[in-house]
Amino acid sequence: MLSLVNQGSVIASGATTPGTWVRVAVNYLVPFLVASIGYLSGRRVRAPAIDWPRYLADYHRDRPAITERLLTRAVSGRHAAPYPWTVEPLRDTPGPILDLACGSAPTRALLGGAQWFGIDASASELAVAAAVGREPLARARADALPLADGSVDAVCAAMCLQVLIPLDAVLVEVRRVLRPGGTVTALVPSRLIPSELWRHPSGVIGWVRVLRALGIRSEPWPNPQARDGLAELLQAHGFTVDSNQRRLFRLAVADPTDAALMIDGLYLPGADSESVARAKRALSSWAGPGRWLPLPLRRVVAHLPHSFTGTGGTVATHRQDR
Fold first, then answer.
1. The pairing of beta strand 178-189 with beta strand 116-120
2. What is the CA radius of gyration of the chain?
3. Which of 158, 176, 199, 265 is most buried (most C-beta within 10 Å)?
4. Helix 123-131, helix 52-62: angle, nearest 10
5. What is the DSSP letter of 3?
6. C-alpha angle with apex 164: 162 to 166, nearest 5 degrees?
7. Helix 201-214 vs helix 273-286: angle between axes, to the nearest 10 degrees?
8. Domain Methyltransferase type, which positions (predicted)?
9. Predicted pLDDT at 292
10. Domains in the chain, start-ordered, CATH in brackets?
């Protein structure tokens, strides 16, 4: 109806342009998204209390290297892929560099010339890393690091701060083991912003299909404040934030195999097998050549001041790249 009212005379006259069809598509998309948001709000229920450490242990036991498998497929035009982008600030750091919650250790080869070591709580993830020579490694919790005070020059935290709990204790440990002046670089999921909803409608529809099938509004995180609010969180823990950047990456969903990997890569505590299977079917039916899901990520780089007084530093927010 919106298309008939807004563009009907143009279509009838035969004087259409590419812009005409874009406006028609938007007119159809708006009510679809509004209806989807209402649907999701109606189905949302309070999530039960989740034992996140146990859930994460089971998840990574059953899916070792799943995060690496997903992120190594993400692209962002001429920009670096997620892992190279994360370690970019550490290229000239000789080390020691701690890779916190390193998983399958995808950053090891990217920092081959540095004194690097990885720590993770998952034996399965560490086994994958060791099998391909990504060492040295140690199994330990992020809130109880087996390291001396001020013993590392840098900490790399790729896609972990949004799920590590208790987060305050983790950040206290990061601050403890980092030498004064040392660097922290962290990669976390971000949120889609309004302009991206209209610039990439097909990918947004793909996400809507997944969320509707799962009956949720967003992926449940134990530390949602550690996503787009990570810079302020680090500042509150005594770090000076040097850069706070965001990029939109693309994850190709060309076939059902890609769709299944995408769903398996989501943290979905409490989701039953029927909902997960329904989400895979929904994404598989949408998948096809040229189809991709938008994946916004945020990288925050900070350092520990030489004279830590217990108060935060300043936040320097750089231009956002998309």
1. unpaired
2. 22
3. 158
4. 30
5. H
6. 115
7. 160
8. 98-184
9. 96
10. 52-304 (3.40.50.150)
What 3-state DSSP class applies to 300?
Answer: strand
Helix (H) or strand (E) holding 280: helix 273-286
Closest Cα to residue 35, out of 201, 212, 191?
A: 212
Quote the distance between the C-alpha of residue 215 and its chain's center. Answer: 20
60: tokens are 């990574």
Residue 4 reports pLDDT greater than 70 = no
Side chain identity, residue 160:
C
Q: How many Cα atoms within 13 Å fall on the side-chain side of residue 255?
A: 1
Do 117 and 153 meet the contact criterion of CB atoms below 8 Å apart?
A: no
Q: Which of 292, 294, 293, 314 is nearest to 305 (CA)?
A: 314
- Whether residue 302 contacts residue 188, with contact meaning beta carbons closer than 8 Å, is answered with no
Question: For the whole prediction, is pTM greater than 0.90?
Answer: no
Separation of alpha carbons 178 and 148, rounded Å: 9
CB 239 within 8 A of CB 304: yes
Q: How many helices (H) and strands (E) does the chain have?
A: 12, 7
CA distance 163 to 235: 19
Q: Which two tokens stand for residue 131?
A: 């099998």
* Side-chain half-sphere CA neighbours of 3 within 13 A: 16
Q: Cβ–Cβ contacts within 10 Å for residue 71, how many?
A: 21
Q: Which of 18-27, 66-75, 118-127 has the lowest mean pLDDT?
A: 18-27
Among 72-76, 149-153, 206-210, 218-222, which is the least confidently predicted range? Answer: 218-222
pLDDT at 167 (0 to 100): 97
Q: What is the token pair recorded at 155?
A: 């900490």
* Amino acid identity, position 15: A
Q: In angstroms, how far is CA 145 from the centroid of its own chain?
A: 24
